[in-house]
Design brief:
The protein has helices at 24-36, 57-69, 85-97, 108-117, 139-147, 158-165, 199-209, 222-235, 265-270, 275-282; strands at 11-14, 42-47, 79-80, 101-104, 123-124, 127-128, 153-156, 169-172, 176-179, 189-191, 214-218, 241-245. It is an alpha/beta fold and 286 residues long. Helix 2 links the parallel strand 2 and strand 3. Helix 1 (24-36) packs across helix 10 and helix 7 crosses helix 8. The chain is globular, with a radius of gyration of 20 Å. The two termini are 30 Å apart. Bound molecules: glutamic acid. Glutamic acid binds at residues 15-17, 48, 203, 217, 221.
């Protein structure tokens, strides 16, 4: 296990997905986490590459190169999530032993049709809540379908999970204790059909294994913190402090995305900007 806190500093991380080149919004996020470690603290770079269809090694290489160019350094080895599936499977087994996991064989179109036909279809932060089709299957039916080789995701039984965990709150650097409301997500997927984990599970397990004490990330991920806090409660993990920063927008007020090629650190480097200039453009002021 990684050290938790060293000489009063924080253990922080920047955790990009290598699905494109980093833009100045990522620079802001990485610099924020890097400086948040404080004196005597530790900064980790983590590559969140669980999605084989979207993640590319060339982008991972570019992330390391661009961050080093900005003047950042980090603990080695860099943790790449695709190399640690066993850790996520172990956590999933723990949740399964508590009776909180069930297999779901639904296709996207089956879920869509069920939602369209229902009178009451609640929406969560990630879209429509799963309507619970596979939750009703008997153990026998589940086993038959798994034995038959049917592809399936693994879902968390949110109602039971929330009841077992009881009321939870997470510590926000600005707002103090914030009540977690994970139930609005419904039965989230914790292992995908193609990968034995999901974003929510992998992030929670890694923040724990890396001993992260402070999570700096964009405010778009505030809702996800509710699910991460619940998983921490269920898995017996210590919850870090969360500091969600503002999102960097373009000149028209639109949030920057990886498709905004001219705002990538790479493009700005090529156009002759210095690291200091790129840091200033990102709005980071230390
Ligand atoms: N990998 C996520 C992203 O690139 C960030 C996850 C996190 O910071 O918790 O958006």
């Amino acid at each position: 296990m990684a050290k938790r806190r060293s000489e009063g500093g924080e253990v922080t991380r920047f955790a990009p997905s290598p699905t494109g080149y980093l833009h100045i919004g990522h620079a802001f996020s990485a610099l924020t986490a890097f400086h948040a470690r404080g004196k005597g603290g530790t900064f980790h770079l983590r590559i969140e590459d669980i999605d084989p269809g979207r993640c590319k090694d060339e982008f991972t290489d570019a992330i390391l190169e661009d961050l080093a160019w900005l003047g950042l350094d980090w603990e080695t080895p860099v943790r790449k999530q695709s190399k640690h599936f066993k850790d996520y499977e172990d956590a999933l087994k723990k949740l399964n032993l508590k009776g909180l996991i069930y297999p779901c064989f639904c296709t996207r179109s089956e879920i869509k049709a069920e939602i369209e036909n229902s009178v009451h279809a609640p929406h969560g932060p990630d879209g429509p809540v799963y309507p619970g089709i596979c939750k009703k299957l008997s153990d026998e039916k589940r086993e038959d379908r798994i034995d038959g080789g049917e592809a399936h995701v693994k879902r968390l039984d949110m109602q039971v999970a929330a009841a077992i965990a009881g009321p939870l709150a997470w510590r926000d650097a600005g707002q103090g204790m914030v009540k977690a409301k994970p139930d609005r997500f419904g039965d989230v997927v914790l292992a995908r059909k193609d990968v034995p984990t999901s974003y929510h599970l992998a992030v929670t397990v890694d923040d724990h294994l890396q001993g992260i004490t402070k999570v700096n990330r964009g405010s778009d991920l505030v809702p996800s913190t509710d699910v991460h806090r619940l998983l921490q409660g269920l898995l017996g993990y210590t919850s870090p402090t969360y500091d969600h920063h503002r999102l960097i927008k373009d000149a028209t007020g639109r949030r920057l995305a990886k498709r905004d090629q001219d705002m990538t650190i790479r493009a700005l480097r090529k156009s002759g900007y210095t690291p200091e200039e790129v840091i200033n453009m990102s709005g980071f002021s230390g």
